[in-house]
Design brief:
Elements (H helix, E strand, L loop, with lengths): L2 H8 L1 H7 L4 E2 L5 E2 L6 E9 L6 H9 L5 E5 L11 H10 L3 E4 L2 E2 L2 H7 L3 E3 L1 E2 L11 E2 L3 E3 L2 E3 L4 E5 L2 E5 L4 H23 L4 H4 L9
Parallel strand pairs: 3-4, 4-5, 5-7, 6-8
Antiparallel strand pairs: 1-13, 2-7, 3-9, 3-12, 10-11, 12-13
Helix pairs in contact: 1-6, 2-6, 3-4
Cofactor: a divalent metal cation
Protein name: Putative 4-hydroxy-4-methyl-2-oxoglutarate aldolase
Pfam families: RraA-like
Length: 205
């Protein structure tokens, strides 16, 4: 299992709690389906609302395991991404899409199993005229995302980790997951959370 696959399995909540330097996205875009999850290096994109030319460009450039992180200005009155682009991403091995905007063809994308996190859904399409930008630093719901940063997202939320901290963040997340497994084993053996966490009553005085 690759480090990115392991991080997707561990989940955003575990990583966000385990690694103090993690940037937790407040009110992030939401997955199209509850079981969608992704983890990988961000390919950042600034897209002119109402236009999707830059998305066609970045899909042709991105590689296996990349996560497209798209600044669409939070707009949900047009959708620059749909079923055809999702297939194009899958054929290139792209790990998923996070967009601060809307998408369309949600049922087809869910059936295909391509992870998409978006602000909303709309059927209105877009033009193909504006060049846009690939690789800029972005603010996603107030959280900075730079090209190459690790992004982990699932139904619980979204976490960003600087590219030079990925290995240590993975170690911390795995250690936290192991501690939680130990706690759950003690619960199954009959202990209470009060006992495990030392939260029993204290005597006055």
């Amino acid at each position: 299992m690759t480090p990115y696959a392991r991080l997707a399995e561990l989940g955003a909540a575990t990583l966000g709690e385990a690694w103090p330097q993690a940037r937790i996205v407040t009110a992030p875009p939401r997955p199209l389906a509850p079981d969608m999850a992704l983890a990988g290096p961000a390919v950042t994109v600034r897209c002119q609302p109402g236009d999707n030319l830059v998305l066609h460009r970045v899909i042709a450039q991105a590689g296996p395991g990349d996560v497209l992180v798209v600044d669409y200005g939070g707009r949900t009155d047009s959708a620059p991404f749909g079923e055809i682009m999702a297939l194009a991403c899958q054929l290139r091995g792209i790990a998923g899409l996070i967009i601060d905007g809307a998408v369309r063809d949600s049922r087809a994308i869910i059936r295909a199993g391509f992870p998409v996190f978006a602000r909303g859904l709309t059927i209105r399409g877009s033009t193909k005229r504006h060049v846009g930008a690939i690789g800029p630093n972005l603010l996603l719901a107030g959280t900075e995302v730079a090209a190459g940063d690790l992004v982990v997202a699932d139904a619980d939320g979204m976490v960003v980790v600087a590219r030079d901290q990925i290995d240590t963040a993975l170690d911390a997340a795995q250690a936290r997951a192991a501690r939680e497994e130990h706690i759950m084993a003690r619960l199954r053996a009959g202990e209470s959370t009060l006992e495990i966490f030392g939260l029993g009553p204290k005597e006055d005085g």
